[in-house]
Amino acid sequence: MVEQNKLWPKLREELTLYPGPSDKSGAPTWTLHDPVRNQYFQIDWVAFEIIFRLSSQDAEIVCNLINQQTTLSVTNDDVYAVIKFLITNELVHQFTTQEYETLLARSKRLNKGWFDSLLHGYLFFRIPLVRPDSFLDRILPKVNFLFGKRFFQITALAFLVGLWGVFRQWDYFKTTLVDTFSLEGLFSYAIAIVIVKALHEMGHAIVAKKCGCKVPTMGVAFLVMWPVAYTDVTESWKLDSNKKRFMIASAGIVTELLIAAWSIFIWSFLPVGAFKSLFFFLGTTSIAATLAINASPFMRFDGYFLLCDILGVPNLHGRSFSYARWWLREQLFGLGDEQPESLNQSQKNFFLIFAFTTWIYRLVVFFGIALLVYHYFFKALGIALFFVEIWFFTARPIFHELIFWKTRWPEIGPVIKHKPAYYLALGIVCILLIPFNIRINSQGILKPETSLNLIATQPAQVTKMPPPLGAEVAQGIQLIGLSVPELEKKIHILQARVEMLSRQSGAAGFDSQSLSQQPILRERLMASKSELDGLLAEYAKLNRKAPFAGVITDIDPDLFLGEWIPKSAAILTLIDGKNWVVDCYVEESDLRRLDIGNWGKFIPDAPGVGSVGLSVISIDRDATRVLSEGSLASTVGGGILVRQLNNKLIPEHSIYRVRLKVDGNPGKLSTGYIRGRVVMLAWPKSILGDLLRGGLAAALREVGF
Q1: Cα–Cα distance between 42 and 238 in angstroms, integer?
Q2: How far apart are CA 586 and CA 442, in angstroms?
Q3: What is the reported pLDDT for 266?
Q4: Nearest CA to 568 among 459, 657, 431, 468?
Q5: What distance in Å separates the CA atoms of residue 681 and residue 441, rounded to the nearest whole number?
Q6: In what order do the strands lie in the sheet with 124-130?
Q7: Burial group, residue 44, by CB count within 10 angstroms (0-12, 13-18, 19+)
Q8: What's the Rg (C-alpha) of the chain?
Q9: Number of helices followed by number of strands (H, E) in the chain
Q10: In sequence order, what are the residues at sequence separation of 6 or more whose Cβ sits closer than 8 angstroms to the Cβ of residue 504?
Q11: How far is CA 61 from CA 1, 19, 55, 238, 245, in A?
């Protein structure tokens, strides 16, 4: 018994106990303050009674005293649980060697090296700027009207009047809002945010002082180098009223809503100018900041502390995370561990939903912050800080959970094969590692390998009609007759000039006087012949003959004899219906999976046209800079994302053309150009391999300076 008395814990003398607000059941609570670390611990009625009687130095005596003197029923386990809580949080004197060793080990864990200190300093640090307590004492009597019921009624009325003003000037309001999405507008929003956040923190400070708390410091905290104003209202934990704590926690949001209400009211009456723009920025910024940031319960901002007070559940993040981790481990491995705390079914469901929602929300937010940090700093430092963000906020919690699984492996290993988690993990690994994917899907155009699109090179008159649609024409048959009188006149003149110059050049050798003129005549003859050849070639283009035997698949339906057609007018299309190809485009990651001769299949979008077999005949090794197949562009419903530049379709991503030959004849087609889906057999790939290759390629691309 004497030995037990020596080991019995003794509460530290400098600790302070404050009455706290009643819990949800109406039972009293207390707040234990550790002034050395400036930490607060909320304890319930049972813990208070046990701590109050610790001087008895015996668990049995403590239980008997509490059970006799109060309406509580306490057991030895309750006493030892409270003692464990006090020892764990270093609220008692340490006597034994083991206790000293525990303190020493904890101190070593807390004493980080210079790198860890630098890392944590980068992730979060505070800079106190002012000590406002005495200033708040002076101004509090002057702003007492802000707490009156009459002020809030007037503010509500002003807000309604302001909304009516916005409704009346809605077009101007929308135009102003759109105009703010500019460099000047973003700068104005930045100034408005500084003003609003400063008033937000002042609201916390004034309400805390009104409730009797000291406000030792106000300043700027940097969360991943992003400045955030803060106010130290830690003393609110000493308050014994939930209402007062709620008032302090909600003061910032209420302040921003007040700013929004009065700013919108003033904006609705001001004439167009700088002051109207100022109140527009203050009003919209206050509403946006409140809804998007402060009211969110998933980060440790005002909304989180308000939710804790409303539910009467302090430390909601930590408690819900702890329960969600326990639940996940039990569902996966069935370890049989005792749950972190006793909860009813509705509390369990809420903790699970809240924890998983918070994890997903933080994953998105922290990944966004990592991208912002990457683009905010210069490239080398941006890349390093990006990986720091991903590790600290995303990968590290997962790593720690895996470490926990490893420490419990003797329990997990023998039974895991009988758990659904084993087969689930095995299935996921198989899906990730086994190369199931042996296909490449793309979009392509079925077209004849040889075709001719006849286009008018200049304005001309139809003198001979083309063959009808669907007609088969032999090689060398004239496709259309077009006449250009001015062109024909030039040809006749040049033909006469060439004939005359030929005679003069031939006769120059018989006359000594004209012999000296022969070089000049030959030069003129060559120039005239060259010009005549050009005009004849132009005439031949207008009166084109079929370069191959084929079928007329497209023709201008409005053509008639004697009609004048403009330059660049499409006249007809001639195709060779014997050999067909499909042109499609693949991404760079799929390029190495294809070889000449790979099989494929074309499934046309056109109804009534059957699918055809394919084989790869060519693969471009240079990326396509201009998309020639316009029907594949996203602007007309195709699958290739493009942008238009100087009337050209420029692919947004690197794509490579693949040409496939149609095996057999697809049958008689009305147009010869059909869009459809292309499926090609390729070298297999796994999901994990694809992810690793993509990530490695992106990393190599980004680190290339």
Answers
A1: 10
A2: 7
A3: 92
A4: 459
A5: 9
A6: 124-130, 218-223, 226-231
A7: middle
A8: 42
A9: 24, 21
A10: 514, 521
A11: 12, 25, 10, 31, 37
Q: Give the C-alpha separation, 555 to 424, whole Å.
A: 61
What residue ranges of the chain have pLDDT lower than 50? Answer: 1-6, 114, 705
pLDDT score, position 299 = 81
> pTM for this one?
0.59
Percent of the chain surpassing pLDDT 90:
15
**What tokens does 554 get?**
């497209």
* Sheet architecture: strand order including 460-464: 481-483, 460-464, 564-565
pLDDT for residue 378: 61
User: Hey, what are 190's tokens?
Assistant: 């930045």
Place of tokens 């403590």: 62
Which two three-digit tokens encode residue 63? 């239980």
- The model's pLDDT over 621-636, given as tens digits with 9 standing for 90+, comes to 889 999 888 889 988 8
Check if the beta carbon of residue 435 is closer than 8 Å to that of residue 566.
Answer: no
pLDDT of residue 656: 93
Complete DSSP assignment for 220-241: EEEETTEEEEEE--GGGGG-S-
The residues near 410 (Cβ < 8 Å, ≥ 6 apart) are none
Angle formed by the axes of helices 379-390 and 345-376, nearest 10°: 170
**Cα–Cα separations (whole angstroms), residue 443 to 549, 658, 668:** 29, 11, 22
Q: Which residues pair with 585 in a beta bridge?
A: 657
pLDDT at 494: 84
| Residue given tokens 């941006």 in the structure block | 382
CA distance 445 to 627: 12
